[in-house]
């Protein structure tokens, strides 16, 4: 539900969201939302082919971006009320909100799943990243909608793109601003808070951490966002929730199988549909959404799409059966009719404990610190390892 509100000369809208309740978004963000380039996100599943295994995981990048925009606004306003950080202007706050809104503009069909095989099949050495594509799509959005572009200065547009990438470059803006949307320092940001809460809800898994508490316990010290020491357990719950979502849903064995089949379908269909060229042309990319599956399937008389159609039908008809796990590094893919899918699970920092990177502060102190691994081991019941790999084996069912 969307409700328009007028307050003086400013008109903003309240969006009712399943996760955050009533979200007030500023007028310029609403104008961006009401463009064709942003509306494409309604047709890109947040969890890709998880939807084919978990029927309620039907949410899209559209609502995730609205939620991230809302949390970004809450976070920056909370930090701006603190005594320590340099105060930021209302225009900078707006830029942070726009960055939260537009951070996923560049996602290709089925979100993260397609990023891997786009890079495998591109005819260039430059690695494709959805963050870079988000910046390109933002430029295209502004070009196609001059009524929006005229309300942003060139340096503000550059700032928004830096926030999306998560790098300040040569900017003189306060460093903590670049830790709100895409925090490369220690992987805690409003993007993660929204998708963990949203995905948990729609997968029916439940959420054990409280991002509202984390936000209220945050402040800026020496130019970086820090958190109260008593939030340590909450952060462990957050990283464990991420691991659990990967193990239960994102890298569920059947989801990984479907991802592999989708990649093979795309590679085959590329000969006819030029799929992988669409990611470099923002006009084409605007209409490059999950609907690509129907585009492949509907052309039943096109012989050049038969192989791709068969791969997609293997997903629909569930033509493979699970045969168990095998060792990582085994000579895979040699046996006819067999497929091997690898799950790579961690707590967001590879083999490392992500908690040791977080900046904390103690009550009534304005000095930040990091916990040592030995301290973390004494305070928490931690796993012996923070990364594991599993290889799932599948075999094509024999036709009776």
Automatic annotation (TrEMBL):
Q: Give any Pfam family that matches.
A: HD
HD domain ranges (all copies): 61-196
Any Gene Ontology CC annotation? nucleus
Database matches in Gene3D superfamilies: Hypothetical protein af1432
Q: Which GO terms describe its biological process?
A: dGTP catabolic process
Q: GO MF annotations for this entry?
A: dGTPase activity
Under the heading SMART domains, the entry gives: HDc
* Coiled coil residues, start to end: none
InterPro entries in the cross-refs: dGTPase-like, HD/PDEase_dom, HD_domain
Q: Which family does it belong to?
A: Belongs to the SAMHD1 family.
Q: What is this protein called?
A: Deoxynucleoside triphosphate triphosphohydrolase SAMHD1-like
